[in-house]
Design brief:
Layout: H1 2-21, E1 32-39, E2 45-52, E3 65-70, E4 79-82, E5 90-95, E6 102-115, E7 121-129, E8 134-141
Length: 151
């Protein structure tokens, strides 16, 4: 039952991207994505989506990259998550080439359209960082197995 829901959401998202809004086109310079388990600041479950200039094989991709954390378990990811300080439901950081800077999100949102049975996460982001840099685009992030213990 979950696959048809995923397929419907993916079809709708793909149709939207083809309609010209480009939500599923990767952000410029960040064509690769992956997702993995993480811990929220309260030590609860979280998922981090990594966007990178190069292929991602572990939860520590080479810079430059963007890391989008949503403070929910994988089975609760679908929805739009705010990064606004007053009601943050996640966080984002941008790491520069060679790790020369770390830029935290000032505002924005992460929308997860679907999570498949194999935990591939499909969504889009619209994030403005403290430096004023704005990153928009979509991602299809295959799951990387990572064991974390929160709490």
């Amino acid at each position: 039952m979950r696959f048809p829901l995923f397929a419907s959401a993916l079809f709708a998202a793909t149709s939207a991207a083809c309609g010209g809004n480009g939500l599923l086109s990767p952000p410029p310079g960040l064509p690769h994505a992956a997702a993995a388990a993480a811990c929220a600041p309260t030590d609860g479950p979280a998922v981090t989506v990594y966007l990178s200039a190069s292929a991602i094989s572990s939860p520590n991709p080479a810079p430059p990259n963007v890391q989008l954390s949503i403070w929910r378990s994988a089975d609760q990811l679908t929805g739009t998550w705010s990064l606004a300080a007053s009601r943050a439901q996640g966080a984002a950081v941008r790491i520069g080439p060679a790790g020369e800077f770390v830029d935290s999100a000032a505002r924005g949102s992460i929308t997860v359209l679907a999570v498949s049975a194999d935990l591939t996460v499909v969504g889009h982001l619209d994030v403005t960082f403290a430096s004023g840099t704005r990153i928009q685009g979509g991602f299809t992030a295959p799951w990387i197995v990572r064991t974390v213990v929160c709490g």
